[in-house]
Amino acid sequence: MTQDGRWKLKYNEVMSFMEKEYRKLSKYYPKEKLMFHFIHHNRKQYNVGTMKEERKVLFEKLLVLCEKYKSCLLYTSPS
Fold first, then answer.
1. Directed axis angle between helix 30-48 and helix 53-68, to 10°?
2. 45 burial via Cβ count (<10 Å: 0-12, 13-18, 19+)
3. CA 73, CA 23: separation in Å to the nearest integer?
4. What is the pLDDT of residue 73?
């Protein structure tokens, strides 16, 4: 699998999680930690301007979803 394929796979995983759980990811739950780091790392690349254009478009959609659930206090222990 190519690097772009892995990126899109992780992107889809994060998007489906947030749409299903109606909340942002937590860095404290082991199952969510890698997805949280995916967002954190890509946000750094986005801000610096080193992100590929095709990824940038998709990542902007993810940022909109993060803003939507920014103040959501629905954190419960994952099942």
1. 120
2. middle
3. 8
4. 53
Cβ–Cβ < 8 Å for 51, 45: yes
Cβ neighbours, 10 Å, residue 55:
16
The pTM of this model reads: 0.78
3-state class of 60 per DSSP? Answer: helix
CA atoms of 6 and 29, how far apart (whole Å): 22
So what's the pLDDT on residue 6?
A: 94
Residue with tokens 């803003």: 67
- Residue ranges of the alpha helices (H) in the chain? 3-21, 30-48, 53-68
Ranges under pLDDT 70 in the chain:
71-79
How far is Cα 14 from Cα 39, in angstroms, rounded to an integer?
8
